[in-house]
Amino acid sequence: MTKNTPKLETERLILRKFTKYDANAMYDILKDDEANTFLPWFPAKNIHEAKIHLKEKYLDKYANDIGFHYAVCIKESNMPVGYINISDDDSHDLGYGLRKEYWHKGIMTEACRAVADIIKNTELKYITATHDINNPRSGEVMKKIGMIYKYSYEELVQPKNMLVTFRMYQLNLDGHTERIYKKLSSCGRRLHSYFHLRKIWG
Description:
This protein is α+β, with helices and mostly antiparallel strands. The protein has a single domain (8-198), classed as 3-Layer(aba) Sandwich (Aminopeptidase). It has helices at residues 23-30, 33-36, 47-57, 107-119, 136-144, 191-198, and strands at residues 8-9, 13-16, 68-74, 80-86, 94-98, 126-132, 148-157, 162-172. The strands form 2 sheets. A 5-stranded antiparallel β-sheet has the order 1-2-3-4-5, sandwiched between helices. Helix 1 (23-30) packs across helix 3 (47-57).
């Protein structure tokens, strides 16, 4: 099995690598204002911006030995309607997005569960995920795949320049239940010191 974004199938979905032919589908995912509300970047204005995002965030990543950067596709069409990725840094942050026509159908929970299951068979010891406190539905996905809330923190998100309160969830995969990943603040310090100053709750 390939170690970079191996193909997965669930009851309703195909999770696969994006290809250069998915640019229009990526544009459909990225252009919607409502779906973009809680994302750190602005909606794509045109297909050119979508192609840049596709190349930088997905296609270029497939050159690495290991990675998890998925197109979430409905089986009947095999066309991407969303995405899931695990960041390559030490946070192993789980990120996901879905076209709003497919919201509230359990699709992202189904897809994230499949990715979490395969990651359990790798050398990753944990994954994390965060959501804006104003987007609790995203947190419900995290809970449903077994992630546990650890703490909250504030961060000035760029390029939108918004001060956001995030809730951080974590799933430890090696039985080390006491491990808590300490996220870096925007100024580069671990949140174990930053957190005492800006602690919300947790």
